[in-house]
Amino acid sequence: MTAAHTAEDIIYDPSDPAVMADPFPVYARLREHDPVHWSPSLKSWIITRYTDVRDLLLSDDLSVKRLTQFYNALPPADAELLKDIIHYLNLWLAFRDPPDHTRVRRIMRHAFTAKAIEDMRPQIIEITDMLLDRLETKGKNDVDLIREYALQLPAFVIMDLLDVPRDMLDDFKEWSDDMAVFIGGARNSGDKYERAARGCQKMSSYFAQLIKERTENPKPGFLMDLINARDEGDKLSEDELIATCILVLFAGHETTTNLIGNATLLLLRHPDQLAKLKADPALIDSTIEEVLRFDGPTNALVRVAAQDHDLHGRQIREGERVFVMVNSANRDPRMFDDADRFDITRQQNRHLTFGQGIHLCLGAKLAREEGRIAVERLFARFPDLALDPSAPPEWLDAMVPRGTRRLPVLLRG
Ligand code: HEM
Asked: What pLDDT digit, counting tens, does each position of 309-320 carry?
């Protein structure tokens, strides 16, 4: 598209396979010609410039509490089906505004200490090596790196953190996939409300039981810290605790899977950068930051306007839905030099992938640690790792997360 095109010409269709594979050209057009774009099909605003995305995430005019409006508009049968999941989601830190958000976040910070994350390091290494050993002993040459590595690694880390036995992986994956169809992962499926309700019911009963056991038989660790976390006499209610466990499980696994998957894909697609990293392993920190910026797991964040908000001459009305496109902001040439270049030595890298403001990701330190360990050890173990030329990566059909569903690779080149 040329500069002659107008705002009205631009159609942003996230379900178009070409856009799924590479959304960046349409983001560039939107940033240039229609930075506050109304999408009739999504019935939402699409915000694409860095400063607008950052400022909106910092603004009180937008709220994360978007579930109430949705819930109130549901037909009675669906509302009944979704009663429990909405109850728990409304207790998620990620869906609460101040003052509730402030109170719960202050309490949760007691469990998310730097030390708690630091203590996870040996476990992350152990899990990573166990998965790499498994890959090796299978002797396979072509594998789906998501299923056999990127998905399992963060799932086991979060399960260890929450004290869930590792043999529960398949159950947890199923319950969390069921909930994900509702929360913003994969797009519509016919029975998505039934699945979401079932996933939530299984997950919440599991955590209720686990919390009961831990309370009766205390055992040091993150879950115990969460149970014990007190702040000036305040603590999490039983339901808030269950909701928080579900949130941590959710927030901490798919995002990190996508970080590992996207990092591997980007490095394999940019052999010059991979060679640089191999020559200087100390570049791993800036590599992870560049992956987070260049094609990170946070494609978009969702908000609802709590009050009218004017931006670049467009009026966002109270109650309207707003997608702030983080991955577009991270490619804004107004903010980043040579923004479309994947450069693992980039120094100025103030990407927005962990959000901004009061909801800034609590698990960023853990995610970075997992990303570093996963990528370093994968390429050390399989130095000839290559993309499978006969099977291209399959991207998630989703608007909020960004990552591949399948990433076929050849382990030995
Ligand atoms: C690469 C991996 C990750 C990415 C890209 C990521 C990204 C984000 C983003 C963008 C937010 C803000 C959401 C919003 O403003 O609506 C967020 C919030 C959050 N993240 Fe992460 N996250 C990652 C990993 C993790 C991990 C490993 C954990 C926990 C173990 C975690 C826990 C949380 C929590 C609890 C919140 C809610 C904070 C709040 O609402 O105050 N995240 N994350």
From this structure: 999 999 999 999
Could you tell me the distance, in angstroms and rounded to a whole number, from the CA of residue 367 to the centre of ligand 1?
9
Q: Which atom of ligand 1 is nearest to the CA of 368?
A: 1
* Protein residue closest via CA to atom 11 of ligand 1: 361
Q: Quote the domain boundaries for residue 362.
A: 12-410
Question: Structurally, how many domains does the chain consist of?
Answer: 1
Provide DSSP, 252-298: HHHHHHHHHHHHHHHHHH-HHHHHHHHH-GGGHHHHHHHHHHHH-SB
Protein residue with its CA nearest to atom 20 in ligand 1: 361
Ligand 1 atom nearest to 357, measured from its CA: 15
**Over the stretch 48-99, which tens digit does the pLDDT of each residue have?**
999 999 999 999 999 998 887 778 888 888 889 899 999 999 999 999 999 9
- The CA distances from residue 85 to 147, 174, 187, 254, in Å, are 27, 16, 18, 19
Residue 36 burial class via C-beta count within 10 angstroms: exposed 0-12, middle 13-18, buried 19 and up: buried
Residues within a 6 A CB radius of ligand 1: 64, 93-94, 105, 158, 247-248, 251-252, 255-256, 259, 296-298, 301, 353-355, 359, 361-363, 366-367
Residue 7 lies in a domain: no
Does 5 map to a domain? no
